[in-house]
Amino acid sequence: MLIAGFPAGSFQTNCYVVAPAAGEECVIVDPGQNAVGDLDDVLREHRLKPVAVLVTHGHLDHMWSVAPVCGARDVPAWIHPEDRELLSDPGKGLSLATRQQLFGGLTFTEPDDVRELADGEVLHLAGLELTVDHTPGHTRGSVTFRLPRTDEIPDVMFSGDLLFAGSIGRTDLPGGDYPTILRSLAAKCLPLPDDTAVLPGHGPQTTIGTERATNPYLAEAAPFAGPTRGI
Questions:
Q1: pLDDT for position 37
Q2: Distance, CA of 84 to CA of 127 (rounded, Å)
Q3: Is-contact 144 157, C-beta < 8 A?
Q4: What share of residues in the chain are helix, strand, coil (percent, to 5)?
Q5: What is the Rg, in whole angstroms, of the alpha carbon atoms belonging to the chain?
Q6: Distance (Å, rounded) from C-alpha 218 to C-alpha 202?
Q7: 222: number of Cβ within 10 Å
Q8: Would you say the pTM of this structure is higher than 0.90?
Q9: How far apart are CA 143 and CA 24, in angstroms?
Q10: Which GO terms describe its molecular function (predicted)?
Q11: What is the band of 231 on the pLDDT scale with cuts at 50, 70, 90?
Q12: Does the pLDDT at position 228 exceed 70?
């Protein structure tokens, strides 16, 4: 398994490239602001051919480069239908002050090929098996993507802005809701094994076990959860 990541743009949003191995097809997760140059370097270094772009949610810092990447590589973008409108109008997901600060003549369009994600769906792309979990709360259409355990790696979750090392995504922007994100954490994170690797939208990698033990938001979410597999 090959997973390469880098922080993109002024938002330092983690963009990930995932493939079974070097020299094979791959998927791209969350190509954000100014991601194209570094992304091209990663693809060239590992001799990878993209077949899809996956978007954890529609906030600008995660989808800024989706259309150019899809257009240049002639690949589809996958996003939850609740956030699809943000591909062409990302200002709907931002505060008024942020919209006024960021949008100086910038325009965004959907890629030519957009496909919609569903909760529990399993995507078979680039020789990978990715499970989609709908995790609203940060935005209405937030999702995570999970890779199953293999002999060489534990379970892996690309958590977007649902879960960070020591924190969670903000809920004060349009489409955000704090009780909803707690329920998403309880339903989609707490049942996972402790050694599940969490690759978040910002900041360093962590594990479910570390966050279960130290993250105050997961502790707050725990009453919403059923039995867990990680303890």
A1: 96
A2: 26
A3: yes
A4: 30, 25, 45
A5: 17
A6: 17
A7: 14
A8: yes
A9: 25
A10: hydrolase activity; metal ion binding
A11: very low
A12: no
* CA dihedral (158, 69, 202, 205) positive or negative: positive
Q: Which two tokens stand for residue 16?
A: 């990930």
Spatial distance between the Cα atoms of 108 and 90, rounded to a whole number of angstroms: 8
Residue 90: which pLDDT band, with cuts at 50, 70 and 90? Answer: confident
* Region 162-166 average pLDDT: 98
- Residue 56 tokens, joined: 């954890």
Q: Are 192 and 209 in contact (CB under 8 A)?
A: no
Residue with tokens 């938001």: 217
Q: Strand (E) positions, the chain?
A: 2-8, 13-19, 25-29, 49-54, 77-79, 114-116, 122-125, 128-134, 143-147, 156-160, 163-164, 167-168, 197-200, 206-207
